[in-house]
Structures are given as structure tokens and as C-alpha cells.
Amino acid sequence: MIRIRSILCNWALVLAVALFATSPAHAQDDQTVVILVSIDGFRADYLDRGVTPNLSRLAHSGVKAAMRPAFPSKTFPNHWAMITGFYPDHNGIVANRIEDAARPGEVFTMTTDDPFWWNSVPPVWVDAEKAGIRTATMFWPGSNVAWGGRRETTGWKEVKGGTRPSDWAQFNMAVSDEQRVNGVLDWLRRPANIRPKLVTVYFDEVDTAGHHYGPNATETLKAVAEVDQTIGKLVRGITELGRKVDLVIVADHGMAGIDASRTIALGHVADPSLFRTIETGPFASIEANPGKADALAAALLKPHDHMQC
């Protein structure tokens, strides 16, 4: 009997962990595999656009939950929140671009794999691996990091120690969705003793299209349809293999249209001499200049139209 249980939601950490925790640690040929799928930037109402037959079918037959992204609603903070169970202000990844006083002159970006920035709390694959449960990640922010390790600075920047998934792939946008799905299915074909029991896979094209064209553009809808077809291929592949799978599909944040008339100029909110900007976008991350923190706070905390600090 082939069983595919599906959970389609946009903030699914509790569901993912609960399903994962029910799986026994010992390898058995009929053991259920949990596959956690992220569709970056998949706005909740994309399911209502008439181009997602596969996702809509899974939502209808499984469980669907409302989107509740953590603040800030960006890719790396929310992916790390989903996989660790901690909100960004506790998991260490508070933005896509970060500075830390403990590392003066350095900046965290979405290509940073130095464990220093990630070591606040462990992702679920670290707990799984330590419990003897094999994991595999076909991309997930942070999955290439040797969690718990440290960077050696003598000679070259080499990481010592740390835990990664048993199988992981360095993120590369050139790897097509079909190749990603084929990689996951190849893992499921393995003998039970080396088959992963927790798998993650990440799709980025909906987010990319949404940023480039906006959430209502034809190009974005095309990306939504394409990732839906990819999910269909994954489900068919699982069925053909006869594996028992709990399929958990999540998104990290939504997407809203913007225009120049709705831009907030930070220099109009506070004197530019009071701060420097670290990151902008749907929210701004700024740092007070030395000795200017009180003046900056006073300027920011006043009531401002269309803005909250």
C-alpha cells in the first residue's frame, strides 16, 4: 500500500516536527520518510489563481494552514525559524544581511557559511543526526553549514568540527527543479540503511519572479505553475517508488506589490547623520552612529505615517 500524507501550509514547523518525531530511529524498509518542501515567496493566494492543480489537490486531501511568517518576513530568518523552532530574535539569523559587534568589519550575507553566525540554536537535522536518524538536504538556507563548528583563521578559513546533514548540496540556482526532484528521488531509492528519513528541498523561482515582476504579473504566475508541475513530478516519483512519505509543503513569506509613491525615505524620518543603513527592502535595519542612539530612538519612535518602529 502506498501512502502519501500531505500537509500544505505556510508556517508548518510544529506539524513538521510532530510528524518527524513519530518516526522510529531504526532503518526499516517500510519506514515513513518526511519530506519538507519550501517554495520561497509563495503568497497564500497563489493557490487561488487556477494554476496549481497539484498543490491544490494536496491541500484538499491533507491539511492547509494560514501563513504566519515571523518578523522580519524575509527568506533566511524564516527558513531558519522553521527548521530550528525559534523566532529570528532567538535563532541568530535576524535578517538576510547582518552585522555583529563580536566580528567587527564582517558582514553576514546569504552566502555566509561560517558557523559563528548560525550557532545560536541547532536545526532539526542536527538533532536528528545526533539521534542516529539520517537526513538529507537538497538546499535549505543554512544546510551547508557545519553547525556547532568554528572557523580557524590560521593559514586559511577552515571550519573545524560541526554537524551537517548526511547528504547535502551547495545551493546553486543553475540546478533545475527537475534535477532537485531527481536528486531527492535518488535518495529514496537507496537501501534502507543509507536512505534518509528526513529530507528538505527548496524551490526559489516563485520568489525570484515575484521580486522582479510583482505578485500579479504573468511571469510570476508562470513560475507558480512551473513549481506546481515540479511538485506533481515529486509526488508521482514517490508513488512509483512505493515509499511512505509525509509531505510537508511550506512557504517562508508572501509578496506585495510596490511602487515609488509608497516609498519611505529614511532621511526624512531621522537625520542621516544619526545612523547608517545595514539592510533595506520591506523593512530597514539601521545602526546608530556612536553617541547618537538616544537621538535616533527619539526620532524613530515618534508616530510616522505608514511606518512602525
Question: Could you provide a short overview of the structure?
Answer:
The chain has helices spanning 13-21, 53-61, 75-84, 88-91, 124-130, 177-188, 205-213, 218-241, 266-269, 293-300, and strands spanning 4-9, 33-39, 63-65, 135-138, 150-152, 158-160, 167-168, 198-203, 245-250, 275-279, 285-288. The chain contains 10 helices and 11 strands.
Please provide a written account of the structure.
The chain is of the alpha/beta class and 309 residues long. The protein is 31% helix and 16% strand. It has 10 helices and 11 strands. The strands form 3 sheets. Strands 3-1-9-2-8-4-7 form a 7-stranded parallel beta sheet, sandwiched between helices. A hairpin with a 5-residue loop joins strand 5 (150-152) and strand 6. The longest helix is centred in the last third of the chain and has 24 residues, at 218-241. Residues 6-27 have low confidence and may be disordered.
